[in-house]
Amino acid sequence: MAVVPSKPLRLTQQDLESIIRLSLEEAKTRGASQAEAAVSQDTGLNVGVRLGEVETLEHQRDRSMGITVYFGQRKGSASTADFSLDAVRATVAKACSIARFTAEDACAGLADPALMAASPPNLDLAHPWEVTADAAIEIAKACEAAALGFDSRINNSEGASVATHRGLHVYGNTHGFVGGYPTTSHTLSCVVLAGTGEDMQRDYWYSSSRDWRELQSSEAVGRESARRTLARLGPRKLTTRRAPVLFVPEIARGFIGHFIAAIRGSSQYRQSSFLLNAAGQRIFPPGFSISERPHIPKAMGSAPFDEEGVATRDRELIDDGILTGYMLSSYSARKLGLTTTGNAGGSHNLLVAPTVSDGLDALLSRMGTGLIVTELMGQGVNTVTGDYSRGAAGFWVENGSLQFPVAEITIAGNLTQMLRGLVAVGNDVDTRGGVRVGSLLLDEMTIAGE
Predict the structure, then answer these.
(1) Where are the alpha helices (H) located in 44-193, listed in sequence order?
(2) CA 19 to chain centre
(3) Residues 418, 389: Cα–Cα separation, whole Å
(4) Collapsing DSSP states into helix, strand and coil, what is residue 249?
(5) Based on C-alpha coordinates, what's the Rg of the chain?
(6) How does DSSP classify residue 212?
(7) pLDDT for res 164
(8) In whole angstroms, what is the distance from residue 225 CA to residue 208 CA?
């Protein structure tokens, strides 16, 4: 079987499938009972400007091939960036050598062959942007200029950037499954500063999409970064208190991420989760739901199959507040005596259903008096105990109206109580990532200040 040259400009999916098939045949020839391989190539362009001058210009071109072999319950893995025939064979040989010296693991092996993606759907995930470095620089400059020209109080910049990436990933195993698909991602962002002396504030905005034609304009991104920065001028401190807290969508996404980390199969079988053995229990308030929708066209979290070739499918992860199951790969599923959920490699488009028909304004009215959190600092989240404590900034609200910006505070609580204390989810959904969620209103947290 032919293998592509060691230094091609760009490989086709057929080229990568050829490498997969060769490596699997080589593994079987060397006595492996099972094997799986993944091949990827990624190209990209990143440009950054600051105060009208180019600061970064990076062209990316990466590729890799990884092979995992099983000799019964013994497992070995190896990888290479060289796709020549000799290199692929040597990599397989190394994996086989490693497997012979590893301990047996009763849960090791490929996913069930009946779960392979027989007819993977085309999810429209690739929209290459043939933008030149010069054109990308001009876009970034226009974005920063729009921010700096928005208001005379915007007096400095941390820069604007344009990034475009294109990937092709193929996976195959000895069940006979070989599949792959191309992806793209494009981002435009800007960070600016305002104020003088000790009252210097910064904020940012960005637009991200699979399809470069769906990015916000450079001017819109720049102006929004400036508007957000100006809103933070003149922050005050708060005295220590307990009050309702509202996470804006970009912050709410991370909060939901803590919940997802706690229900991963690896967290469960290692007993390192604040939601240990929580399947079937009420985690969120009644009426709250989270669904997984892997097949949304163009979405950032979409995938026709997971990293083991298992077909992805729609599921209701939280139904009326109750946790229906975990995020499982075949290995973690076996450790728990369960079946894989097609989540080897992570989740695929989690949709947190809004509980109100309006966005931020409606939630502020419902909150009355409390704190809007627009930025979090630090890593004070313990997913084993659920203890939560992070530096924060945002805005104080009274009678449903913004009063003044707030800085130099800490918000604290426990994730178990925070999840149960969710009051409402807004419909101002952020679709830029793999978790789609609106603003989240929590009933109460400790706010530590003066």
Answers:
(1) 85-99, 133-148
(2) 29
(3) 12
(4) helix
(5) 25
(6) G
(7) 98
(8) 14
How far is CA 369 from each of CA 98, 134, 400, 442, rounded to the nearest angstrom? Answer: 61, 49, 6, 12
Identify whether the C-beta of residue 308 lies closer than 8 Å to the C-beta of residue 348.
Answer: no
**Fold of the domain spanning 13-231:** PmbA/TldD fold (3.30.2290)
- Rounded average pLDDT over 295-315: 97
> SS3 of 294, please?
coil
Per residue in 149-165, pLDDT tens?
999 999 999 999 999 99
Element (H, E) at 417: helix 415-420
Q: Which amino acid is at 202?
A: R
Residues 285, 348 contacting (CB under 8 angstroms) = no
Residue count of the chain, please give it. Answer: 450
Q: What is the pLDDT of residue 9?
A: 61
Output the average pLDDT for the chain.
Answer: 95
Contact 169, 181 (CB under 8 A): yes
The confidence score (pLDDT) of residue 6 equals 46
Residue in 388, 404, 377 with CA at minimum distance from that of residue 446 = 388
Full DSSP string of 341-398: -S-TT----EEE--SSSS-HHHHHHHH-SEEEEEEEES--B-TTT-EEEEEEEEEEEE
The amino acid occupying position 198 is E
Interval 326-353 mean pLDDT: 97
Given the structure tokens 């086709």, which residue do they identify? 12
| Contact status, residue 448 vs residue 391, Cβ threshold 8 Å | no
Angle among Cα 210, 139, 201 to the nearest 5 degrees reads 95
Question: Average of pLDDT values for 415-424?
Answer: 97
Secondary element (H or E) of residue 218: helix 218-231
Listed in sequence order, the residues at least 6 apart from 278 whose beta carbon sits closer than 8 Å to its beta carbon are 262, 263, 323
How far is residue 277's CA from residue 261's CA, in Å, rounded to a whole number?
Answer: 14
Q: Which pair of structure tokens corresponds to residue 222?
A: 């720049």
CA angle 407/363/207 to nearest 5° reads 65
Q: What is the residue extent of each domain of the chain?
A: 13-231, 241-254+354-448
